[in-house]
Design brief:
With about 450 residues, the chain is of the alpha/beta class. It has 15 helices and 16 strands.
C-alpha cells in the first residue's frame, strides 16, 4: 500500500493562468523520490533530500532510475461506443455520423457487448497512459452502466454520461424526452460521485436535440447542480448552418446552449473551431472549457483550432482524442498533431504548454485539479512511467537532446503508447508493458 519510487519526475505545481509562462509552473526533478500512501501522493522530493522524510524507509522501494514519471494523461473528450470504427474512410462530420457512427453506436444496445467493450476501451486508455477522461456513452443506459462498472473496477476517475438525442438519428437510437430524462436521472442517482466516478449530462449536439430535450437537460442541471455537461460545438461549417436553420431564434450556435443554461464552469465543449467573437466571450464569461481534438479535426477535415484566441479570452483548454473521429488514444500523438495544427496558424505551441494541457490543465478544465493532474501532496496517485526511447530513431534523437524540454518535445513528436511503460491508478500499477525490474 505504501510505495517509494525513485525516478525522474515532471509535473506542474500550480495552475497556469497565462500559458506563456507555463514553464515557470513546471517542476523537473532528475533524481527524485515519490512517496505514495493509500492511493495518495505523500511527498515528492530530490533523492538527496530523502531523509527529510525518514519514514520513506518503511515504504516499498521501486528503483525506476532512467524512467520519467509524470501525472497520468487526461482525455477531455472521447466516445466509448466509437472504438470499433476509428479510421473510417472518406466523410466529413454529418455524413460520417450517418454512415459510420450511428450504426456503430447501435450495437451498444446489446449490454453484454457493451460490457466487453467497456473493458477493452478502458484498457486502451490505460495502455496509452490516460488515467482520467470525460467520456460520451451511447444512448443506451446499459452501456453507460457497463462503462461505469468497468471504471469502478479499475478505480479510475472518470466522468461519463449517456448520450441524449431525440431527432435526426436512426429510429433505434432516437429517444422520447421523458425517457431520456428518466434514464439520465437514474444513472446520476446510481453513479454520480460514487467513489471516483462522476456524471456528465450528454446532449449529443444541438442538431439532434429538440428544444424540449434541451429543456430536460437544463432541468437535470438544476436538480443536480454539481454534475458536468459535455457536448459538441462549432465543429463543421454544415453543422453550424444546420444549427442556424433549426434554431433561428438564437443568434449563434453557443447561444442555443447558453439559452438552456448549459454553459458554465463544469461544461466542456468539444472542438469550437469556427466560433464568432461573441461565442468566445460567452465561453469566457461562463467559465466554460474547451476540448481541443486535433487528430479528429484533421481526420474529418473540420478545421484548425485557434489556441491563441482561446488564450486571449482566457478559456481553459484540455486535450481530447475524440475517438472515433480522432485517430489515436495516445495523448502524446494528440499533442504532436496539436503542435502541427498550431504551426499552420503560425503559433508555436511550447512544450510546457502542451504537457500542461495534457495533465494539470486538463484537470483544471474538468474542475478536478484539486484531486488529479500533479504530484502535490494529497493528490491521487495517478501517474505514468515513461520510456524516453523505445525505437532506434527515438534513441538516436533523444541522445542528441540537450535538456528536458528538448527531450519532452521529441517524446511528443516521435512517441506514442509504446513509450508508456506503466500506468498507475489510485496508487497501484494498473498497466505494465513488458518486463519491469522493480
Ligand atoms: N458531433 C455530434 N456527434 C459527434 C460525434 O460523435 N463525433 C464528433 N466528432 N462530432 C460530433
Ligand atoms: Zn466527439
Amino acid at each position: 500500500m505504501r510505495y517509494a519510487i525513485r525516478a525522474s519526475f515532471f509535473d506542474f505545481t500550480s495552475r497556469v493562468d497565462d500559458v506563456t509562462f507555463a514553464s515557470q509552473h513546471a517542476r523537473y526533478i532528475e533524481d527524485g523520490l515519490l512517496l505514495i500512501n493509500q492511493g495518495k501522493i505523500d511527498a515528492l522530493f530530490e533523492w538527496q533530500n530523502r531523509d527529510q522524510s525518514p519514514q520513506w524507509h518503511d515504504y516499498t522501494l521501486y528503483d525506476l532510475r532512467g524512467k520519467l514519471i509524470m501525472p497520468g494523461f487526461i482525455d477531455t473528450h472521447i466516445h466509448f461506443p466509437q472504438i470499433g470504427m476509428v479510421g473510417s474512410w472518406g466523410e466529413q462530420l454529418l455524413e460520417w455520423l450517418e454512415e459510420y457512427t450511428f450504426p456503430a453506436e447501435s450495437e451498444y444496445q446489446n449490454t453484454a457487448f457493451a460490457e466487453q467493450m467497456a473493458s477493452t476501451f478502458l484498457e486502451q486508455c490505460l495502455e496509452n497512459g490516460t488515467t482520467s477522461a470525460l467520456i460520451f456513452g451511447s444512448v443506451h443506459p446499459g452501456a453507460t452502466e457497463a462503462l461505469f462498472a468497468a471504471a469502478e473496477q479499475r478505480e479510475m476517475r472518470i466522468i461519463a454520461g449517456k448520450v441524449m438525442m431525440d431527432r435526426f438519428v436512426p429510429e433505434a437510437l432516437c429517444e422520447e424526452v421523458s425517457e431520456s430524462y428518466q434514464q439520465t436521472k437514474q444513472l446520476i442517482e446510481r453513479w454520480h460521485n460514487k467513489g471516483r466516478l462522476h456524471y456528465a449530462l450528454t446532449p449529443r449536439f444541438a442538431p439532434t436535440s429538440t428544444p424540449a430535450l434541451l429543456s430536460a437537460v437544463s432541468q437535470l442541471k438544476r436538480e443536480y447542480p454539481d454534475v458536468w455537461i459535455q457536448t459538441h460545438l462549432s465543429e463543421n461549417p454544415q453543422e453550424i448552418a444546420w444549427v442556424n436553420e433549426l434554431f433561428p431564434e438564437h443568434h449563434n450556435y453557443l447561444a442555443v446552449y447558453h439559452h438552456y443554461a448549459l454553459t458554465g464552469p463544469k461544461s466542456v465543449f468539444a472542438h469550437c473551431l469556427h466560433l464568432e467573437e461573441s461565442e468566445w466571450q460567452c465561453l469566457a464569461e461562463t467559465e466554460s472549457s474547451i476540448s481541443f481534438c486535433p487528430t479528429s479535426n484533421l481526420f474529418l477535415g473540420s478545421g484548425l483550432f485557434n489556441l491563441r484566441k482561446a488564450h486571449q479570452h482566457k478559456v481553459n483548454i484540455g486535450m481530447g482524442t475524440d475517438i472515433g473521429a480522432g485517430t489515436s488514444f495516445s495523448i502524446l500523438r494528440t499533442l504532436s498533431e496539436a503542435y502541427k495544427v498550431q504551426q499552420l496558424q503560425h503559433y508555436s505551441l511550447t512544450v510546457a504548454e502542451a504537457y500542461y494541457h495534457a495533465t494539470l490543465g486538463g484537470a483544471v478544465s474538468l474542475s478536478l485539479d484539486d484531486k488529479i493532474g500533479s504530484f502535490m501532496p494529497g493528490k491521487e496517485a495517478d501517474f505514468i512511467v515513461i520510456d524516453f526511447a523505445v525505437t532506434p530513431l527515438q534513441t538516436l534523437r533523444q541522445s542528441r537532446c540537450r535538456d528536458i524540454w528538448e527531450r519532452l518535445f521529441v517524446l511528443m513528436t516521435l512517441g506514442d503508447e509504446r513509450n508508456i511503460r506503466q500506468t498507475w491508478v489510485n496508487g497501484r500499477c494498473a498497466f505494465q508493458r513488458h518486463e519491469m525490474h522493480a
